[in-house]
Design brief:
The chain has a seven-stranded antiparallel sheet, with helices on one face. It has a single domain, classed as Roll (PH-domain like). It is built from two helices and seven strands; from the N terminus they run E-E-E-H-E-E-E-E-H. The chain is α+β, with helices and mostly antiparallel strands. A hairpin with a 2-residue loop joins strand 2 and strand 3.
Length: 141
């Protein structure tokens, strides 16, 4: 997402619940863009730094960076405030649910929801324009 020129809207730390049996909370460095959410292990260099430092091998393989693209995201759900944390779930199009938590004042759930809605609106506008262009093209003699 950052490679395609998307600017970062918000950066910081989020905790993601692991899929394993113990379901531990793991810190992830997150970059929210206009296209989606990047989840980066905290020891991993940022994607832009990685490109500049090509001779040095990365601390972890690039496969560890997860991209949650808005085109594959359905909703941001289940907001619960407990103690100092806000808990929320990102529901992906294929039904997978990813649990997150952050300090209440960080507002990650609201920022992700807002960017996702804006992304979906942009896609809907592009679809309408495309349909209109096709109709105009077919109607032209």
């Amino acid at each position: 997402m950052l490679e395609s020129g998307c600017k970062a809207v918000k950066e910081g730390m989020l905790e993601k619940r692991s899929d394993g049996l113990l379901q531990l909370w793991k810190k992830k460095r997150c970059i929210l863009t206009e296209e989606g959410l990047l989840l980066i292990p905290p020891k991993h260099p940022p994607p832009q730094e990685q490109q500049q430092q090509q001779p040095a091998p990365p601390a972890e393989p690039a496969a560890k960076i997860k991209e949650l693209h808005f085109s594959n995201m359905k909703t941001v759900d289940c907001v619960e405030r407990k103690g100092k944390y806000v808990y929320f779930t990102v529901v992906m199009a294929e039904g997978k649910e990813i649990d997150f938590r952050c300090a209440q004042e960080q507002g990650w759930n609201a920022a992700i929801t807002l960017q996702m809605v804006q992304y979906k609106n942009r896609q809907a506008i592009l679809a309408v324009r495309s349909t209109r262009q096709k109709q105009q093209h077919l109607a032209a003699p």
